[in-house]
């Protein structure tokens, strides 16, 4: 007597997964799960059909992140980072974002994205400009000023200036201490 394989309800798994998930196309949310809606303070119906722009602190951060994602998605078919995002009520929070392109020829075309709220481990504690948020996220990834400068199309000197401002805002004496404070590690 053979055992029939269990029928897997993929829709229920998607809707009730413990991590925020969505399917997008051209940076528009096609469908999302309950965890994503709850994390950002929207209903699922409000998010479906909404541009990812609504989840970013500013239009500039939305555009620059899209520009940064394209070459990485073209090379790897997936993308991952930690960045500051915005809830429906305007609260800013750190979020780990991972995406996978469903068509390798369309890096921002159909894709699957996951979002994890990491604000408990990494609270947003200082008022940062959009550029400071971008540089802070890249510093947390362990990137050097020279690498950051190439990635965001700035001079290394300008990146160093932003790092110095971040160090003042976070009362950090060294770059290492700044990174620890950005990730929420108390020294």
Automatic annotation (TrEMBL):
GO terms for molecular function: DNA binding. Keywords: DNA-binding, Transcription, Transcription regulation. The keyword Lipid biosynthesis does not apply. SUPFAM superfamilies: C-terminal effector domain of the bipartite response regulators (SSF46894), PYP-like sensor domain (PAS domain) (SSF55785). InterPro entries: PAS, PAS-like_dom_sf, Sig_transdc_resp-reg_C-effctor, Tscrpt_reg_LuxR_C, WH-like_DNA-bd_sf. It comes from the Bacteria. Residues 121-186 form the HTH luxR-type domain. Pfam families: GerE, PAS_9. Signal peptide: none annotated. One of its GO terms (biological process) is regulation of DNA-templated transcription. PANTHER family: DNA-BINDING TRANSCRIPTIONAL ACTIVATOR DEVR_DOSR. This is PAS domain-containing protein. It comes from Duganella rivi.
